Amino acid sequence: MSRLQSVRGMHDVLPDEAQIRRRIEQVWIDAACGFGYEEIRFPLVESTALFQRSIGETTDIVEKEMYTFEDRNGESLSLRPEGTAGCVRAAIQHGLIPNRQQRLWYLGSFFRHERPQKGRLRQFDQFGVETFGMCGPDIDAEILLLGQQGWQRLGLSPRLVLNTLGNPDERAVWRGQLVDYFSKFESQLEDDDRRRLKTNPLRLLDSKSKSIQDLLEEAPRLEDLLGEESRAHFEGLREILDAHGIDYTLNPRLVRGLDYYDFTVFEWVEESLGAQSALGGGGRYDRLVEQLGGRATPAAGFALGLERIRECLEAEATAAVDAYLVALGEGETARMRALAMQLRQEIPGLRIRMNMEGGSMKSQMRRADKSGAQAVLIMGAEELGQQSVILKFLRESEEQQTVLLDNIAAILAEHFAPTG
Ligand code: AMP
Questions:
Q1: What distance in angstroms lies between residue 278's CA and the mean position of ligand 1's atoms?
Q2: What is the distance between the alpha carbons of residues 45 and 20, in angstroms, rounded to a whole number?
Q3: What pLDDT shows up at residue 25?
């Protein structure tokens, strides 16, 4: 029988790596909580129509990358390729939006059927925030400041790339101008770009093809079409970022791959990652709530790719165990199990691993060493009789000592600062 393997582009995260990923997640959760954001969880599977109506039928994600299948009753369902659509759907469904301001965060897995390569997986994890009911540039600035705090805590400094897409009317005029402009060069375009010209001309700005890149030099610019309101919004945002000393690069070609953005869009980019260099991105999506059946509500958010963030860090896993408990007989084992329960209760955060399946002193000590524990507590018949244990610090030259059971908690508590 052939060996079963994980699905291409969907990776296992083994314990050492999981520990590092959990640390990254905790940084983002703490950052969001520090700004008063609340967690929301929504399903991995939604009706396909949700993504078609929000992300856009002619985007790469919906056209080519969704895991879509028929449920047993014939309904078309899809694995979520991103978080905003599901979050908005949930917020509308449960009445979280009307007459209220909401600040939410989420964390979880997303699925896109892309060609697997470095930085592109078919199952990947994102951390994201979504805000509802606030239309000013100050909330755009707030989510960028939240991001800044997360990057700082991780010791990273990706470049912030910023753009404004104006309002839908301004964009419609620009879109028309782009179509007129590129139509003049249609014969020079590659098939994919010709198709984009018909279906989603803004996506031409993302195109990697050299001919488009060259043509863009002279292409009509949205900047020249922006009205007073759009300009004021963008300037307001930039003022706050400047006041906080946050650096950014303006890139008028940043459009992002989803249809629902208005005004501010941004990405955090780490060039050292190579081709897939965006760690995350987001922007305003003021029409989406209404488009999905809710009352018109301004909104803004971002999503970050946790695998790509991990790639930027040199983090290594640390030991999973502080103290390993060795016992040399049945009575000793029972007593040690009780001691372990007492210590876990009394010293939250202390990580205690109990030896299993007996074994000689030597083999138990070998397991203790392998566990990475710093301390070993050993109980033989003599210690059991005296209600004591031998305490040995494996990675220090200190002599072992015999400690009364009554005193062991205090010694361990002092030695191991809570790891939280
Ligand atoms: P997007 O909303 O598509 O810009 O995604 C936000 C972030 O999620 C990206 O900047 C990446 O860090 C991450 N991401 C998106 N798609 C993938 C993928 N297929 N594999 C790994 N990470 C991804």
A1: 7
A2: 27
A3: 98
The protein residue with its alpha carbon nearest to ligand 1, atom 3, reads 257
Angle, vertex CA 104, rays to CA 99 and CA 108, nearest 5: 145
Minimum CA distance residue for ligand 1 atom 17 = 120
Cα distance between residue 243 and residue 279, in whole Å: 24
Which of helix, strand or coil describes residue 226? coil
Among 122, 151, 267, 304, the mutation site with the greatest number of ligand 1 atoms within 8 A of its Cβ is 304
Question: Helical H runs in 55-209?
Answer: 60, 84-93, 137-154, 168-183, 191-199
Residue 258 has pLDDT above 80, yes or no: no
Cα radius of gyration (the chain): 28
Distance of alpha carbon 285 from alpha carbon 287, whole angstroms: 6
Check: CB of residue 45 under 8 Å from CB of residue 137: no
CA-based nearest residue to 265, from 126, 166, 177: 166
Give CA–CA dist 79/67, Å, rounded: 6
Q: What percent of the chain has pLDDT over 90?
A: 82
Q: Based on DSSP, count helices (H) and strands (E) in the chain, helices before strands.
A: 15, 16
419 pLDDT exceeds 60? no
Q: What is the pLDDT of residues 222-234, one digit of tens each?
A: 999 999 999 999 9
> CA-to-CA distance for 331 and 345, rounded, in angstroms?
22
